């Protein structure tokens, strides 16, 4: 990407393809789920849309080319994320959660593991789901904390040539379409209760069907109403020893790297929601007089509020693109920029959408208008994929404390 952030001809074509698909296939999600009462019903209603997405090759497009997919890097992922998420955050999140679920396989799987585990996701048939099973009841911001802290509570012990996994997981889409588990769970476990964090945690692949998987319940979330957030138990789940991804005990680095790869994409999710909110508020301000003689956009306060929203939206997009590019080329400051993108994009989305609701007024509190739903979807962005307070700001703090930290690494001008 050139320094002016101009997309290549191929990227621009991909952007328009994603935009057209989202309008044709994802626009109807809201109507399909509006009158459904339970999380399970709402999730099931999105399965045809997810199937269409897989059939159109978008899941393959997220899988990097070295693993048999068509992905050309995080910039392409950012393009897809914005176009899809601006139209519907539910199916889009299901797709991107599956990408996160596959990250340990990309990062640490052997060629044989990658060939076997990725095969269902490289197909353009079906509705395969993957999940990085990290979060646990009670929180996981300190999942790698040493004893006597609890850290990861899910355990994996060897019994002959098998791992036996026990524990509970929460929030990630690990229950699958039928409540019997995702097609692939990458389960974060404590494989050595007495070792320090760098040697205590492992990531183990658990393909479906997994005997001992138990869905406890689906959380009725504030936003992303058709994306499932289950709590489930793993009760003596057995998998072969060779299902460990990477070295035994090396799970912390795999988990951290997986979430680094998706941090910038969460910032782009915020961009997408701000874009949808801005487009609605701008059209509203141009056409609504609200009892006055002229459209409200002619009022200076309204115009300034819209201008501030657009400034933030553009800044968040380009920060996200820069972070994705830095990750793609493995620039020295890539981690820092990715963290900035996640924090700024996610928190800006909540603030900007709230301010745009003030532009529209009390009618924005009605679900017949989109702003309230967009705000509900935005609220989770600072909280998941490594919460901004519990994880992401702490990561930045740790970077700043390093003796070799270079202020200009993030800018690429050290």
Walkthrough of the structure:
There is one protein chain. The chain is an alpha+beta fold and 414 residues long. Helix content is 50%, strand content 12%. Helix 1 runs parallel beside helix 6, helix 7 (89-108) runs antiparallel to helix 10 and helix 12 (334-360) packs antiparallel against helix 14. The longest helix is centred in the middle third of the chain and has 37 residues, at 251-287. The chain is globular, with a radius of gyration of 22 Å. The model has no long low-confidence stretch (mean pLDDT 95).
Global mean pLDDT: 95
Please state roughly what percent of the residues sit in beta strands, choosing from under 5%, 5-15%, 15-25%, 25-35%, 35-45% or over 45%: 5-15%
Kindly report the oligomeric state of this protein.
single chain
Q: What percent of the residues sit in helical stretches (DSSP H or I)?
A: 40-55%
First-to-last CA distance: 20 Å
* Sheet with most strands: 4 strands, mixed
Main β-sheet, spatial strand arrangement? 1-4-5-8
Structural class category = alpha+beta
| Rg calc | 22 Å
Indicate the low-confidence ranges by residue numbers: none
Order of helices and strands: HHHHHHHHEEEEHEEEEHHHHH
How many β-strand stretches?
Answer: 8
